[in-house]
Specification:
Layout: E1 2-9, E2 14-16, E3 19-22, E4 24-25, E5 35-39, H1 42-56, E6 72-76, E7 79-85, E8 91-97, E9 102-106, E10 110-114, H2 118-125, E11 133-137, E12 152-159, H3 160-173, E13 177-183, H4 184-192, E14 202-208, E15 211-215, E16 223-226, E17 243-248, E18 260-265, E19 269-275, H5 290-294, H6 299-308, H7 317-324, H8 328-339, E20 344-347, E21 352-355, H9 364-367, H10 370-380, E22 384-387, E23 390-394, E24 399-404, E25 410-412, H11 415-420, H12 428-436
Parallel strand pairs: 3-11
Antiparallel strand pairs: 1-12, 2-3, 4-10, 5-9, 5-11, 6-7, 6-10, 7-8, 8-19, 13-17, 14-15, 14-16, 17-18, 18-19, 20-21, 22-23, 23-24, 24-25
C-alpha cells in the first residue's frame, strides 16, 4: 500500500558555483534548514549520496525500470544522516556525515526528504578534487506561509513498506555485533570477487587473516551475505575508504540466513548497506518489530522516553533511564516501540539508537501490518482460549494450537509457522496469544 506524500521544494536540488544546495521538504517547519557549511571530503560525500540515491531507485528482486524516491535526511547535533530503502525493501542504505566531515554548524534539527533529482546525480558524479564542498541543506528563511508560485511541488507515491522497513531494521540491527574489519585494499579485492548482480545465492563471509573468505555454509563468527550483488552500491566510495566493517548476529552451524550490515568508513563519513536475509525478502515483512507493536505495557514508557529525546546522534540509554526514572531494560523496550513509528533508528557503528522523526502518521506501521491487524481481530473476537502456558485459537475455518516453550518462544500448528519456523516473526495466532497473556519480548 502506498501513501501519497506531497513534497514541497523551493527549487530543484543542484550543484552550484557556491556549492551543493540540497532542497528539503517537511520536517518541523516547511523546508527546514539543517546545515550550512563545507563538507571536508567532497568527492566521498558526493559518491556516498549517489549510493543512497541509487539504492532508492533500484529494485534488486525482479528488477524493473528505476523509480526515484527521495532519500530521508536527518539533521542533529554534529551529524547528518541520509537514508533510503531499495524498491524491493531488501536493502537499507545510510550515509552518516560525521563531525570530521563537516566544517559548519547544524543550525536546526529534524527529519525530512531531500530531493536528489537526475541533474543533481549527474553533477555529483562529476565532483572530484580536494577542495571543500559547501552544502546548504534547505533554503534560507522559508516558511509555509511564504510559499507561492516559486515552489516546486510534486506528489510522489511513498511506499508504506518504507515505514515498516524502518521499524524492522532498527530491531534487527540492535542485535548485531562487529564481526570483521578489513583495510581498504583487501575490501576492494573482496568486493571484486563477489558474484555479479542478479546472483541470489546465500553465502557466508568468514574472517581469514587480513581479508574475508566465502563459504556456502554458516560457521561460528561468519556473516551472512545473501545476494552479494546487492553490495554494488558500495563501490563508488571504495577509493575514499579506510576500512570495511561487517556486522551481524551470532550464528552457528546450521543457522538460517540472517541480515547483515556492510559499512565503509572514510573517517569523514560512513556508508552502510544492510541486507535482508535473502534477496527476495523485504525488511517490511520480517516481523521483528511485532512484539514492540503489540505490547500495551510499553506504550506509556515510550511516551515518557519519547518526550525526553533531544535529537541525540547517539542515545545514552543509562542517562535516559536516569532521566525517566526507569530501569535500562524498560528504556530499551520503549526505544524499540518508538522505532516502530520511525522516531529512532539504530547505528551499529556507535552501538546506539539515534533520534529522528519520520514524515509518516505515527500509527501507520501498526495499522498496515496484516499480522498485527489479524491478531487484534482475534483478541477482540475472544478467539484465544488459554490453557496454562499453551492456548487454542479458533478462527472461522480452523482451530490452531499455540505452545509457549521454556525459552519464551512460541510455536503454532498453522501453515505460516510450519513454513518459517519463527524466522520471520510470530504468526497472528501466537501474536494474539501474547497480547492476552505473554510478556513483551517473549515472541520469536
Amino acid at each position: 500500500m502506498n501513501a501519497v506524500q506531497t513534497y514541497r521544494y523551493l527549487q530543484p536540488s543542484a550543484l552550484r558555483a557556491a556549492g551543493l544546495d540540497l532542497q528539503t521538504c517537511g520536517g518541523p517547519a516547511a523546508n527546514p534548514r539543517f546545515f550550512a557549511g563545507f563538507l571536508t571530503a567532497p568527492a566521498a560525500a558526493a559518491a556516498g549520496l549517489l549510493a543512497v540515491a541509487e539504492v532508492a531507485r533500484t529494485r534488486y528482486h525482479q528488477p524493473v525500470n528505476p523509480a526515484s524516491l527521495d532519500p530521508v535526511v536527518t539533521g542533529s547535533r554534529g551529524r547528518l544522516r541520509f537514508e533510503s530503502f531499495s524498491g524491493c525493501c531488501g536493502v537499507y542504505a545510510r550515509m552518516d556525515v560525521l563531525p570530521a566531515g563537516m566544517d559548519g554548524e547544524i543550525s536546526g534539527h529534524g527529519t525530512t526528504n531531500v530531493d536528489v533529482n537526475p541533474p543533481l546525480r549527474e553533477a555529483l558524479a562529476r565532483v572530484g578534487g580536494i577542495e571543500p564542498l559547501h552544502v546548504a541543506v534547505g533554503p534560507d528563511d522559508l516558511t509555509v506561509s511564504t510559499m507561492d508560485g516559486s515552489v516546486v511541488e510534486r506528489k510522489v507515491p511513498l511506499p508504506g513498506r518504507w515505514l515498516r522497513g524502518f521499524a524492522e531494521v532498527h530491531v534487527l540491527t540492535a542485535g548485531f555485533e562487529p564481526r570483521a574489519e578489513i583495510a581498504a585494499a583487501e575490501a576492494a579485492a573482496f568486493l571484486r570477487r563477489l558474484p555479479a548482480a542478479g546472483d541470489r545465492s546465500v553465502l557466508w563471509a568468514v574472517p581469514a587473516g587480513r581479508t574475508l573468505r566465502l563459504t556456502s555454509r554458516p560457521v561460528p563468527g561468519a556473516v551472512c551475505l545473501a545476494g552479494a550483488g546487492r553490495l554494488a552500491a558500495l563501490r563508488g566510495v571504495l577509493r575514499h575508504t579506510r576500512t570495511l566493517r561487517v556486522y551481524g548476529p551470532a550464528v552457528r552451524a546450521g543457522s538460517p540466513a540472517v541480515p547483515s550490515t556492510w559499512e565503509l568508513d572514510t573517517g569523514a563519513l560512513r556508508l552502510s548497506l544492510t541486507l535482508s536475509p535473502e534477496p527476495y525478502r523485504g525488511f517490511s515483512g520480517e516481523g521483528a518489530a511485532l512484539a514492540a507493536l503489540a505490547g500495551d505495557d510499553v506504550v506509556d514508557d515510550a511516551e515518557l522516553v519519547g518526550a525526553l529525546l533531544n535529537w541525540d546522534p547517539a542515545i545514552d540509554v543509562a542517562a535516559l533511564a536516569d532521566a525517566a526514572a526507569l530501569p535500562d531494560e524498560r528504556v530499551r523496550a520503549a526505544l524499540a516501540q518508538l522505532g516502530t513509528a520511525g522516531r529512532v533508528g539504530y547505528d551499529v557503528a556507535d552501538g546506539a539508537y539515534f533520534h529522528r522523526v519520520m514524515p509518516y502518521d505515527a500509527g501507520r506501521a501498526e495499522r498496515d501490518n496484516p499480522r498485527l491487524v489479524g491478531a487484534r481481530a482475534l483478541v477482540e473476537r475472544g478467539a484465544v482460549e488459554r490453557d496454562g502456558e499453551n492456548a487454542t485459537v479458533r478462527t472461522d475455518a480452523e482451530t490452531y494450537r499455540v505452545r509457549r516453550h521454556p525459552d519464551g518462544a512460541y510455536s503454532c500448528s498453522c501453515r505460516w509457522w510450519a513454513r518459517h519456523r519463527g524466522q520471520r516473526g510470530p504468526c497472528r495466532h501466537a501474536l494474539a496469544v501474547s497480547m492476552v497473556a505473554a510478556p513483551v519480548g517473549a515472541l520469536s
